[in-house]
Fold each of these.
Amino acid sequence: MKKLSVMCGNSNPSLTAEICQKLGIKQTEVFVGRFSEGEIRVHIRENIRGQDVFIVQPTCPPVNENLMELLIMIDAVRRASADRITAVIPYYGYARQDRKDQPRVPITAKLVANLIVAAGANRVLTMDLHASQLQGFFDIPVDHLYAINVLAEHFKERKIEDVVVVSPDVGGIKMARAYAKRMNAPLAIVDKRRVSPEKTECMHILGEVKGMNVVMVDDIVATAGSLIDAVAALKAAGAKGIYMAASHGVLSGPAHERIANCKDLQEVVVTNSIPLKEGVLSPKIKQLSIAPLLAEAIARTHNAQSISSLFEEIRN
């Protein structure tokens, strides 16, 4: 069997190190730096000819820098005669630009998919895409993982009583239903209307939350504006403790300040698909590791085994 090789750029080296530790292998040494004018320079410092290469590089902020690093690394690995190249993208940037929702705008999620394929990737391993149909934007196989096991297990271990799982919008019902099934809890929905790409307006709550502890589930927490609005609506509807579980903690702009200042929000739980900046973290934010999940998926992909059993809850 061909040798397994795992490498990374600069977007989340700690996650890659943890993945390699779980796999019991040494991380492939790669230099990813800059020329004096800012152009990205990549040098793979080990022989990877004929190997099964996995490049771990979430395209999180700074998105364009990390995306270009990924594309150049894929090209370098292809030209180094690797047998197969898998782009491991725990967080897929530009995913929210997935359709023409107004005239004369791009579908950037498709453009980025084209770039990854054109660079030379043979398959993609990603997690909790903003919309599952983004898998169809790629002309190569895509393995789509979910963080539900990691996040739901955290709340089960907390042993919170009278829990209701809440979807922050209608589009997240399927995911929220999977969490509710896993946590043996009822389901409710926040009906909201989007007034701009960054702002939403809460309307009303579908389902019973009065006197209940709420666990909201979503794929992304960005500026936390929608989150704070939803917390206010849930509190007005009589909810007790309010918790948030999100796969990707983008936490851009005023997100940290908003979360810290929201007295009705108990905890925000995210994964380490995106590294959190030290020194600005609110004590309310907790980060869980997806390294065991990604390591298992990489091992199964390398050994040509099925990975569907890792997320049975979503498919049912």
Note: The CA atoms of residues 11 and 85 lie 18 Å apart.
Amino acid sequence: MKSTLLLLAMFAQLFYPTPPADPATAPNPDYPVHVHILIAKATGGQGDYHGFGRGDIFGPALQGFDYTFSCGQPFNNNRQSSEFYQARWKKPNEKLEILLQPIGSSHINHCDLNIALKAKPYGRYTNPQPNAQPTAPTP
């Protein structure tokens, strides 16, 4: 009986995709960059998701970006203009790592975004994040 349930659970993972994650809710000082995801498209499954989208980086000046990713979990776009993903630069102006939190869980996951910066932001904000950090670390 136990082995039958285990087999059913394994097969269920083959047919049911991982639900998308939301931004991590607990502030993390190691991730000072605030990223607003406007579009998040993902394909794949079984812990191997690929996708693309666009977003904005909150900072002294708002900056738009396009991105691609390959992660173990898809993620949602920010549904409110005040929501953001916590991020940090892995390669200045090229790669950001964002924090993901599966819905209904306290576990934190990471995902790397390969980005292409744009001259202007994509979104319109009435009050961008006042505590946002600069877009790239100072040398």
Note: Confidence is low (pLDDT under 50) at residues 5-15, 130-139.
Amino acid sequence: MTIAVRIAPVRKSLHVKAAPEHAFAVFTSGLGRWWPLAHGIGPTPRKGVAMETRLGGRWYEMAQDGTETTIGRIIVWEPPRRFVMTWDINSQWKPDTTVSSEVEVRFIPDGANATRVELEHRKFEQMGAEAGESMRKDVDGGWPGMLERFRQEAEAA
């Protein structure tokens, strides 16, 4: 008998003092303004990170030597409400499309000129039980700091 591994998604939510359209734009096309270059999977030194803002587009980083490393691909694109992308990184923090998890980010109006941003990182079980739990633990601890950097950029712009 095969027992299916099930790993709970990571869910994070935050309030941003900015309209959903602006918050969506800062998270996606403005990614390079708030994502820290120290957090990456490709060659160093890094010179930037970007998202191709369209269905099928990449979230990728660029190294100073010209190397581009894909972090994931956009699989749902519904501006300014939400997007879903693959997270093509294994538990060793190396690029790996065979164990992709998913990240969904929703932008929900939350009062006058404000947005509730909800992030769900899921499908860790595709990595296997031990590797999936390791990645889940890592991103559960990492997303809050990233989202705070995003919030600060969205509210400042």
Note: The CA atoms of residues 32 and 49 lie 5 Å apart.
Amino acid sequence: MRIVSLVPSATEMLFALGLGPEVIAVTHECDYPPEAGELPKVTRDVLPAGLSAAEIDAAVRELTLAGEPIYELDAEKRIGLRPDLIVTQALCSVCAVSHDDVRAVAEEIESQPQVIALDPHTLGEVLGDARTLAQATDRKDAAVDLVSEAAARIDRVRLAVRDARRPRVAALEWLDPPFAAGHWIPQLIDYAGGEDVLGFSGEPSERRSWEEVVAASPDIVIVMPCGYDAEIAHREAEMHRDELAALGAGLIVAVNASAYYSRPGPRIVDGLELLASILHPERVPQAPGEALTVEL
């Protein structure tokens, strides 16, 4: 099977299912596993490089209101690929090429590929995507193993923190302007032994004011700007030192959202373990990734 993945989380899931050799092209943002970064890229950014967080937000809003894409497919590359399967997403127009654009392109390709659009909103639906992809690619056994291992790790975290004091947690998906992380993030915080004071499980991320974040009185703030690694997230936090200091939280940390939180792929379980280690280091002392403390 010849597979084109148009969303980084799907690329990670395909490789986790053992389908890496069958993936023939990916997006310009697919960087994990490392082998994916060596494959042909069939997308590109519309936004210019070097924009600030506020400029990115403004540009995305302008394009979205105008019905214009934020990512584009490379027309020349897609013609010669002749894929059997294209995997995309319908969750977020900011995260990848739009689902409608992908279907329109698929109709023009001679091989008439099947199009699968992933649309997870919860942790369970993220794991369900493994089954969806396995069904289309005859990798059912691999999906069973992947989901079983993930479920066991989730259960270990929940057991470790089940009777611990639950700190009030604010997860910020963007800082300029502030956005409360939604979808699966509130559920991850709950499973990690915290209380999300801004987001709602299964619901989209939501723009908030700094006054609203202050009023939520968080004990811990997780800075997780969508698409950024921990170092860039920490730098963004430093640029908003005054706003974050006004929250009165006892701990503010920056994490790698690109790896563990903004992509609904297999590493989302790593993200759960990292959250538990941040909230309850005495109970979950080791976890993948790192949390960079923001000194105020």
Note: The chain has a mean pLDDT of 90.
